[in-house]
Structure formats: structure tokens, C-alpha cells
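Holo model, 5-O-phosphono-beta-D-ribofuranose. Inputs:
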Amino acid sequence: MKKAAVIMGSDSDLPVVEKAFAVFEEYGVPYEVHVYSAHRTPVEARIFAQEAADKGFGVIVAAAGKAAHLAGSLAANTVLPVIGIPVKSSTLDGLDALLSTVQMPSGIPVATVAIDGAQNAALLAVEILAVSDAALAEKLMNARRAATEKVLKKDAEIAAKYNK
Ligand code: RP5
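Output:
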């Protein structure tokens, strides 16, 4: 199976990013984690992105706050799919990072999740890897079914309580 890469702009992003690790563990997806910044370590970030496909990665998740150029700068240096997590790490509550990550100019796409949306970023990464992995796709389908059943059970409980 291809690996997922999780890159964060600073170790201060770790509390947000850790939610992605839990998803990869749950689905048995191999992943590698690094701190590379578009601003503070631009050379290391670029080299990582340029070599990622040859090193067995199938998708890159990139988390950054403030003027969050990390996902875009990684995407500029690879044709692997890049998923951006805008991190809420400033006085602007993450809106700065959201706009910096989502407003990519045409030609270099970044799939952007919600502010601090690490769980969805990892799930999307798993879905991307599952396109060429039937067993992984089956795990995703099972999880969706379980989530549906959980909500229907809650509906039955609430309906029984209030719909007299
Ligand atoms: C961004 O700046 C990082 O991704 C982080 O969210 C933010 C602040 O970084 P630190 O000053 O906490 O290292 O590049």
C-alpha cells in the first residue's frame, strides 16, 4: 500500500494534526510525519515534495496556520494529491490559513478541509489510497455503514421519547 505523508509547518500544529494519525492507525495506512515549513525550511519542503512519489507516498496531508503556504508549496513540487489543513493558530481564528490554503491559483490544486479538520483530511487521504486498494475501500464502506446505524439508533431513541 502507498504511504501517506503528514507535513506540518510547526510542531505547534501537532495537537491539531494528531487527529489524523488516529485515522491512519484505524485504517492500517502507513504514514510518515515531518515538520517542514514553506517559510522556515523551504528547501527541505521542496525536496520532500519532489521525492515523495519515488519514496512510495500516494498522498500528502499538509497542515499550517497563519499565512499558510505549505500545502500550496508542496503541491507546486509534486503531482501527488495534496490535502491542506488550515490550522487555527492566530488572532484571526484560522480564517487567514483557510484563505491561504484554499485560494490556490489555477493549475496547482490543493484539496482544502475545514479549519483544524485533520480527521477529514486523513479520511480523504484514505479514500484517495482506497481508489487502488479494494480492502481499504471495504473498510471505508463498513465504517460508513456503522456511522449510519449509530445515527439511526439515536433517531429511534429521540423519536420514541418525543413523538407520542
Ligand atoms: C505556521 O505558523 C505554522 O504552521 C503554525 O501554525 C504557525 C505558527 O508557528 P510557530 O510560531 O508556533 O512555530 O507556519
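Helices lie at 14-27, 42-52, 70-75, 95-102, 118-130, 134-162. The chain has a mean pLDDT of 97.
Archived with the compound record.
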